[in-house]
Amino acid sequence: MQVFLKIWRQAGPSDAGKLVDYSLDNISEEMSFLDMLDTLNDMLTRKGEMPVEFDHDCREGICGQCGVMINGRAHGPLKNTTTCQLHMRSFKNGDTIYIEPFRASSFPIKRDLKVDRSAFDKIIQSGGFITERTGQAPEANDIPIPFETAEEAFDAAACIGCGACVAVCKNSSAALFTAAKITHLALLPQGKYESQKRVLNMVNTMDEQGFGHCSNTEACEAECPQQISVLHIARMNYEFNKALVLKK
Amino acid sequence: MHANTLVHKLWMAFTGLFLCFFLVIHLLGNLQLLLPAERAQLQFNAYSHLLSGNILIKIISYVLYASIILHVVYALIITLQNRAANDKGYAKDNRGQVSKWYSRNMGVLGTIILIFLVIHFRDYWYVYKFGHLPLDSNGDKDLYTLVVSSFQEGWYVCLYVLCMWALGFHLLHGFYSATRTLGVYHPKYVRWLKQFGWLYTGCITLGFTLIPIYVYFVNH
Amino acid sequence: MALDPKIPQGELDKKWSHYKATAKLVNPANRRKLDIIVIGAGLAGSSAAASLAEQGYHIKCFCFHDTPRRAHSVAAQGGVNACKNYHNDGDNIFRMFYDTLKGGDFRAREANVYRLAECSANLIDQAVAQGVPFAREYGGYLANRSFGGVQVSRTFYARGQTGQQLLLGAYQALMRQVAAEQVQMFTRHEMLDVVLIDGKAKGVIVRNMDTGEIERHGAHAVILATGGFGKIYYLSTLAMACNGSAIWRAYKKGAYMGNPSWTQIHPTSLPQSGENQSKLTLMSESLRNDGRIWVPKAANDNRTANSIPEGERDYYLERKYPAFGNLAPRDIASRAAKERIDAGYGVGPTHNAVYLDFSKALAEQGEKKITAKYGNLFRMYEKITGINAYKEPMRISPAAHFSMGGLWVDYELMTTIPGLFALGEANFADHGANRLGANSLLQACVDGYFVAPITVPNYLAGEIRAAKVDINDEAFAIAEKNVRQQIDTLLAIKGTQPADHFHKQLGRILYDKCGLSRSAEGLQQAIAEIRDLRASFYIDLTIPGTGNEINSELEKALRVADYLEIGELMCIDALNRNESCGAHFREEYQTPDGEAMRDDAHYAYVSAWQYDGPGLPPILNKENLHFEFVQPTVRNYK
């Protein structure tokens, strides 16, 4: 099939960018969306033009590296799917496809579709861990964790850090990302001891990094490749309010 | 602790929920307008008089004014911060496919409500407080006649109803959004509160919508 | 030359504790003065960097991703082995050691494998303390499942995302040290050379991939934890940017390369669906528990799967290996699939796959049970192929997966260059000629959390009088010049073909001739073909743009340039080993019924290849494997 692409091209962080038109023939339905971009880049490279820079790595939906806005949707038209898991059978012959980088003030564009998501690392650095030295751990089965709690913690811990939640949010809020880590750790007995400090620090860092507020539109949950529930955001709020009240 | 996003949201939630509570009281008072005309007039005016004299009510009314102002001020702050966080949009934007329109447009709905409030205050509250209203047979200011006569105007009723629908959608998202901000995360209670929110929103919206329509048709 | 692996004396179960008891220490005041460079921030790199930082060393950690959480450890699905014996089914350290050694076809070092098993239990404690949400039973205790090649349940798992959860645990520990300013993190930096001063590893040359700047960094020791190079086959289950460049540059600086040709080919990957495909997706091996593998009995059969009657189907694994059937080990299942596909019995539009059929299991157990077990995999399969595997069989094919080979290291995980360590998949150490499922995460973690934090200080104890490394030293200048020259050379070719073009061809050559089965003739051909390909690479490569900007074509070209050299060494290594063992199957050395024939008398050694200069053949050094505690036996799955 044939597709018409409108791709955001931007040479560097401080350069002006624009949408550039490309068209591709002979795209098969079995192709993944990223294979399609590879095909375009192969063509551009052979012509001596700069290929489109885009983020990708594992191509099986787990590393969180890929992520672009496709026709105005984070990771494309399917819900809960990463860009690399999207296939061309989701498009029709003759479709025009807009491909833009994830946009947020906290995700500056590096080049073309590549954005800088290091703000996420900063949030984790401010408290997204359990303070434990290698060697300190007690026997693993000494502290039982109820099945349901472990499952709930896993649901939150499954976050791949792709940034789709920020990209789809009208406020560019990192609430889902931050909340997932806070609840993952707050649920576990090992993580409880520093949960108060953690939530205050992480929420502050989230603000400092320039992310917006959560308006509970729940768009993030719909686009999240791991289907992380917005209830984790409520849980983060609970932890935050508790910390605010109990803080000495 | 410096004020951060979640503290702002907490203020929004507290003030919003107080306003939700006030709406119930307001609606209960207004339901008196549905009584037979003569009884309604005396009872409604007496009720209005009661509300303007009581010290407790006075305190609550100041909390009310403060809530409205804070709700608006924090909404502005939050909106500005959100704009700054998301300074460039998308050339093609279909993000709306995955969320409810009213949840994305709380600012617009809120602005409609605010404009309505200004009109509402000018038409009733201001006139009652500072204008010259005739007295009814009990010697209370006759707010009832003022209200009923304003609901004789078809366009006014339409405007009023439209604003009530804006309020309804604002409440529909606002109520449960506030419970989220307050930290209700347990799925069972989240479900209950969501259902309660629907019920509450339905009652408030229908109540405030029906009264002017009823008054309009009864007097035509 | 025979190599000394520096294995501690004494009984097998005392070696590691003896080593720990006698290893040299560095006092806390001196630790602050010592710098360590860690290249790679996957499971092995992050855990080593965090653990050493906790001790008080100053760490500079580099990774080519935009954040360490993306390293390919993230993609490991099944689980991590540990002999906790929580199932009371007779598991213990020795049994785990033996299973691993046997699974590796007795081509690994006893002492290392024993240490791996010995530290495995601690790893689970460590991960749980970090908050890794392993699967649990209803009582709240940890759950286990069984995995290929063993008879006990010792695999810990976090749904199908065990690698992700372990990596996030290590990543979070690393981020904690970054916040404590004990680790300096350099993301989007790729190592292009190791710098040696007076024969010791003292630093690296890296390229900032966002700006193109070439930087020098000095330290008292350098740790390489850069993962495997299975991406050399182009189509593989590895991530796009996985590469062998760091270890290859180290090799060219004098580190030996151990058993480079041993690559595990995973049997249950999704087949290639088009020429432009760049990556094969792995489907969990667990599917083989209920799926039956077959091909049509007639060659080039173009009928759809469901229209082929039962009598015309060849369940070749059940036919050839009645004892293990569809659960035959990875190397055997992969080889059998390739044999059928090559003989013309492959299925699918390009006849490059075999069927994995659930119809019998669905009929016997019902759709509900199958969904409970494999629902997410069926969904994933449908997402990728658009095919509903409840209605028709899945199509699978073998794909390159894991490098058992890598930099040769001694018991301390130090390469032949003093001060240069290799951890995780980047070294050759623990898996022998075939890795057991759920052992890769284990090795990465054990190396990073428990081994390097003891052995690296043991080396650094001798470096406490060494001054801060001067990056203006001539050795740095020369290394930087060489790196710049290489980049300039590649950019100046200005040919017509992008790097992927050469990579695809290299992958094809290797998959056909140095993949599942190898022959002397094929390997010799492959060496010649790779040399030709390399020559044409330096004539016909094209890279748009410059070196001073984000340029993924340049990044690819640098990696492919190294692959084109690694590929040749792989073939040389495979050609040298005149036996079949584990993943290394030489067609000349098989039993009459097609099974691998190992030659312990002549090949019970590790091939450690030494670089001898450009254009010269590599020198073979041997580390003889001594089996003091177990007797090598023949693997039999019939």
Could you describe the 3D structure shown?
The complex is a heterotrimer of chains A (248), B (220) and C (638). Chain A is of the alpha+beta class and 248 residues long. Chain A has 2 domains: 3-104, Beta-grasp domain (Ubiquitin-like (UB roll)); 117-246, Alpha-helical ferredoxin (Fumarate Reductase Iron-sulfur Protein, Chain B, domain 2), CATH 1.10.1060.10. Chain A has helices spanning 33-46, 118-125, 147-157, 164-168, 175-187, 189-192, 195-208, 219-223, 231-246, and strands spanning 3-9, 18-24, 69-70, 73-74, 96-100, 109-111, 114-115. In chain A, a hairpin with an 8-residue loop joins strand 1 and strand 2. Chain A is elongated and about 60 Å long. Chain B has one domain (5-86, 103-218). Chain B is built from 8 helices and no strands. The radius of gyration of chain B is 20 Å and the shape is elongated. Chain C has 3 domains: 12-22 and 34-262 and 404-463, FAD/NAD(P)-binding domain (3-Layer(bba) Sandwich), CATH 3.50.50.60; 270-399, Alpha-Beta Complex (Flavocytochrome C3, Chain A, domain 1); 474-605, Fumarate reductase/succinate dehydrogenase flavoprotein-like, C-terminal domain (Methane Monooxygenase Hydroxylase, Chain G, domain 1). In chain C, 37% of the residues lie in helices and 15% in strands. The model of chain C has no long low-confidence stretch (mean pLDDT 95). Chains in contact: A-B, A-C. Chains A and B meet through strand 4, helix 7, helix 8 and helix 9 of A and helix 1, helix 3 and helix 7 of B.
